[in-house]
Design a protein that fits this description.
The chain has a domain of 51 residues. Helix 4 packs parallel to helix 5. It is flat, with a radius of gyration of 28 Å. It starts with 8 loop residues before the first helix and ends in a 32-residue tail after the last helix. It has 7 helices and no strands. It has 183 residues and is an all-alpha fold.
Length: 183
């Protein structure tokens, strides 16, 4: 990737927001999980990562991501470039991974990928940081209970007493100054 100078304005705000959300310890946990699932190691030790740039450099070619989704879903075959050198094949690998992850049922991120894999009772071992996803648990109430709810007037509806628009003027309307008839 190219080196860019400092960002300004909206770009800088977005960069600060992304930097604030990044937690290095969590990223290292996810990278370690990827190594454990795939059975392969990254180009350098993940515990030596010091920033989000180091983490993105490990994942930017998309090869380990494609191997990960193939291990999580053995029926999923992802076509990917095994040794990409240029930016376009790297982006294509990541695009193929994202498409496979979407078919797997994941939309947001690698942590969620681990959670969905655990939910599907995958044959792989999952670490303690993987969040268990909620299962559907529909409730069935008897008709009598449903009717009792209709008899109560909920307080959430609020009231319109004492509500008026007195003193309010439309946005952008100039102040109406009228001569005082008494003075």
């Amino acid at each position: 990737m190219a080196n860019h100078g400092p960002s300004y304005g909206l770009s800088r705000e977005l960069q600060k927001k992304n930097d604030a959300r990044f937690v290095l310890e969590e990223a290292i946990e996810v990278l370690t999980w990827i190594e454990n699932i795939t059975g392969e190691r990254f180009s350098f030790d993940v515990t030596t990562c010091e920033s989000s740039t180091d983490v993105s450099n490990l994942l930017k070619d998309g090869v380990m991501l494609c191997k990960l989704i193939e291990k999580l879903d053995p029926q999923c075959r992802v076509v990917y470039n095994k040794k990409p050198k240029m930016a376009f094949p790297m982006m294509e690998n990541i695009s193929n991974f994202l498409a496979a992850a979407k078919r797997f049922g994941v939309i947001e991120c690698l942590r969620l990928l681990a959670a969905v894999a655990q939910m599907r009772s995958s044959h792989l071992e999952h670490p303690a940081w993987v969040v268990k996803l909620a299962q559907s648990s529909p409730r069935q109430f008897p008709e009598a209970v449903m009717r009792r709810g209709e008899m109560v007037i909920p307080l959430q509806y609020g009231t319109n007493k004492c509500a008026s628009q007195k003193g309010m003027s439309p946005y952008g309307l100039p102040r109406q100054i009228k001569p005082d008839p008494h003075g």
